[in-house]
Design goal:
421 residues, 8-stranded parallel barrel, 12 helices, 29% helix
């Protein structure tokens, strides 16, 4: 990739901002559908494959409905995500419930909805049994510990993750669950985040396939599915290469044929949970430059802030920024692009080479379709912005209104204070 192109033009953005004030999140329906179809195509060789979209990434019913129409399931991790998925029409094994530190009430709701329950820890067997009994279909989450590396590059450190069971616990859990009536088993693992290599999924798959073969020998469990979870990332910087989902699917197929098929497990179904890959690049924030400051650095102040997108402040994540209408202008200015929070890390870009930015310019922040709105918050009393959908026909639909002060003060409805605009 040598450039990043917005899915909005300046003319479209001006029309939208005449109706919906900035900042706002906007999603591209055509892009969402194309991505879902590409993922399904990459794994079409595996009968029954399903992408369980991670609801936490973009918890909006309009987005979930599009994904359900494309054959996706819903990956949930809380009561409210289960409720949201049910409202959209997901039912039974269209839902994967993967949580940690889970309560009996959460397990009970997931079981009532017929979801596949994925246990994060061996001690949760007791919690699940007390909540609703042990279902016949059950999944367990695995972490191998140590460092996860591809070649000489360490991708992540599972030893630091709070998720999953050790290898020994996994065998014990399968035996316990089988003794309590479980009949169909699944295996799940997440070892690295936002990877930019076509080798990640095939490497992870091989680890899980080999582990599944061992577990079947050790416990006699009938392993019906393996969930490769997420971790396929986005090329957020213009110079980064995109992942090739077809090459990734082919790499997983080779591992499947080399490990599972010879072990007599060629009927195992594969699942995925690609929240960031599915939605990240198909969403953006549109914000307006409203202030400039000239001190020891050059600052551009926009009307969005970390409450709209906290990843740069929280992780130092890079999000490319396009000044709409100035795509071909020289990047001969260096700015920090900042919000208005009383926090010095409220910055969308630091020392970023950009075209000259003038007050009133519309800035398009790329790759915010996953973990953008959903990680929003209300620090400084900031109100979360609207979510819009750019339809395949070019129309704009409001899919979540902007918050108002009334929303912010709603949880004081029990009190004697009369707070209003």
């Amino acid at each position: 990739m040598s450039e990043k192109k917005p899915f909005l033009t300046l003319e479209q953005a001006k029309e939208i901002t005449a109706v919906y004030p900035t900042p706002f999140h906007i999603y591209d329906e055509a892009g969402i559908r194309a991505t879902a179809r590409a993922v399904n195509s990459a794994f079409a060789w595996n009968p029954g494959f399903r992408e369980y979209f991670a609801v936490k990434a973009t918890p909006n019913p309009y987005i979930l409905r599009i994904l359900r129409e494309e054959g996706c399931g819903a990956d949930c991790s809380s009561d409210t995500e289960l409720m949201l998925s049910e409202a959209v029409g997901f039912a039974g094994e269209e839902i994967m419930f993967s949580s940690n530190n889970t309560t009996e009430d959460e397990f009970a709701r997931a079981n009532r909805q017929g979801a596949i329950i994925n246990l994060d820890d061996i001690t949760l067997i007791e919690t699940l049994e007390a909540a609703c009994g042990i279902p016949e279909t059950i999944c367990c989450r695995y972490t191998p510990g140590g460092d996860f590396a591809i070649g000489n590059e360490i991708m992540d450190q599972p030893k630091e993750a709070k998720y999953g069971m050790t290898r020994a616990q996994l065998t014990e859990a399968y035996k316990i669950l089988k003794g309590k009536g479980a009949r169909r088993f699944g295996l799940h693992a997440f070892l690295a985040s936002n990877t930019l290599t076509n080798d990640y999924y095939p490497t992870l798959a091989r680890i899980l396939f080999e582990t599944a073969v061992e577990l079947k020998k050790e416990t006699g469990a009938d392993i019906k599915f393996i969930n490769l979870s997420g971790g396929i990332g986005l090329a957020c910087r213009p110079e980064e290469p995109d992942n090739d989902i077809m090459a990734i699917g082919e790499g997983v197929r080779r591992a499947y044929e080399e490990v599972l098929v010879p072990a007599g497990m060629g009927d195992v179904t594969l699942y995925a949970e690609l929240g960031r890959y599915m939605l990240g690049g198909n969403g953006a924030i549109v914000t307006r430059a409203q202030h400039e400051k000239h001190t020891y650095k050059e600052y551009i102040g926009v009307d969005a802030c970390a409450c709209n997108l906290m990843r740069p402040a929280m992780y130092g994540a890079y999000h490319h920024i396009t000044v709409l209408g100035k795509e071909n202008a020289p990047c001969d200015h260096v700015y920090d692009v900042v919000g208005s929070l009383c926090e010095n890390n409220d910055k969308f870009a630091i020392d970023r080479a950009m075209p000259q930015v003038d007050r009133g310019d519309l800035l398009y922040i790329h790759d915010t379709g996953a973990h953008g709105y959903s990680m929003g918050y209300n620090y400084n009393g900031k109100l979360r912005s609207a979510e819009l959908l750019l339809g395949e026909d070019g129309g704009i639909k409001l899919i979540r209104r902007a918050e108002t002060p009334k929303d912010y003060f709603a949880t004081f409805d029990f009190s004697e204070f009369d707070i209003h605009e």
